[in-house]
Design brief:
Layout (H helix, E strand, L loop, with lengths): L2 E7 L13 H18 L3 E14 L3 E15 L1 H13 L32 H6 L15
Antiparallel strand pairs: 1-3, 2-3
């Protein structure tokens, strides 16, 4: 099942009411009203969180403030009903993708003959004497 989430700020102070005498009672009444309002819109309460934020303080300073928020979720029926026929029509693999068999390594292609390194025959080089380079001839008149 898929869900969509929403986060709203938690009440900062309690609302005055006839039966609520203490600040805790007033805050509980305010929180109850907020939870009931969201439930009427189809949202399920998940949890409350206290999250830090960094905000400007003065011209160049920064300070960390903590905000209390309420997290709600509700099922997404429109996406689920649209995805159900699509998922049923697509074939599923017999095994998970991570368990697919490994392919045999491919053989490297042979290089062209012109680029292939030629073997050096060391026995014939030792038997034949090296020929000296031709002498330099300077042109006559210089």
């Amino acid at each position: 099942m898929r869900y969509e989430y929403t986060v709203i700020p938690a009440p900062a102070r309690g609302d005055k009411a006839k039966g609520a005498k203490t600040p805790v009672d007033r805050f509980a009444l305010s929180l109850t009203a907020e939870l009931n309002r969201m439930a009427a819109e189809g949202w399920d309460y998940v949890r409350a969180e206290t999250l830090p934020t960094e905000e400007r303080s003065g011209l160049t300073g920064r300070s960390t403030l903590y905000h209390n928020v309420l997290v709600f979720r509700r099922p997404v029926a429109a996406l689920e009903t649209a995805a159900a026929p699509l998922a049923a029509s697509q074939p599923q693999p017999e095994y998970p993708v991570s368990a697919t068999p490994a392919r045999a390594p491919e053989k490297a292609p042979e290089p062209p003959r012109a680029a292939a390194p030629q073997p050096i025959d060391h026995t014939s080089a030792a038997e034949t004497p090296a020929t000296p380079p031709a002498p330099r001839v300077t042109p006559a008149g210089s």
